[in-house]
């Protein structure tokens, strides 16, 4: 059950970044680039060093820092979007997930 909740949290974070990217600028081509490129950058970062099946997976404090950094970026993107009021609850959930993952992975 925890793995499913964690995965859904990661998907929600990617959606936050995509929502920010698609709604950020007036120029539609820039919206499209940010809406696709920003979530893709987060995905590539996570797939390279944070995913459980990654060949270069970090562990311990570096993994915790990576997770917190990614979650922080995602919540900041939500803060700078029209859904600003959801940034704090999302941040609390993300912080809980990062801390619980650090505790459970020991």
List the helices and strands and how they pair.
Elements: H1 2-23, H2 28-49, H3 61-79, H4 87-104
Task: Walk me through this protein's architecture.
The protein has 106 residues and is mostly helical. It has four helices and no strands. It starts with a helix and ends with a helix. The mean pLDDT is 92.
Helical residues, percent: over 70%
Structural class: mainly alpha
**Secondary structure: number of strands:** 0
**Major pleated sheet:** none
Please count the helical segments.
Answer: 4
Mass-distribution shape: globular
Name the beta content range: under 5%
List unreliable stretches of 5+ residues: none
- Which series of helices and strands comes N to C? HHHH
Cα radius of gyration in angstroms: 14 Å
Mean pLDDT: 92
The termini sit apart by: 18 Å
């Amino acid at each position: 059950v925890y793995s499913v909740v964690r995965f859904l949290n990661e998907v929600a974070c990617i959606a936050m970044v995509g929502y920010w990217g698609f709604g950020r600028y007036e120029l539609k081509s820039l919206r499209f680039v940010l809406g696709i490129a920003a979530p893709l950058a987060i995905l590539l970062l996570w797939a390279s060093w944070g995913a459980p099946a990654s060949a270069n997976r970090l562990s311990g404090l570096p993994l915790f820092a990576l997770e917190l950094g990614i979650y922080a970026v995602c919540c900041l993107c939500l803060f700078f979007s029209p859904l600003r009021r959801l940034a704090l609850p999302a941040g609390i959930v993300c912080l809980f997930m990062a801390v619980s993952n650090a505790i459970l992975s020991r």
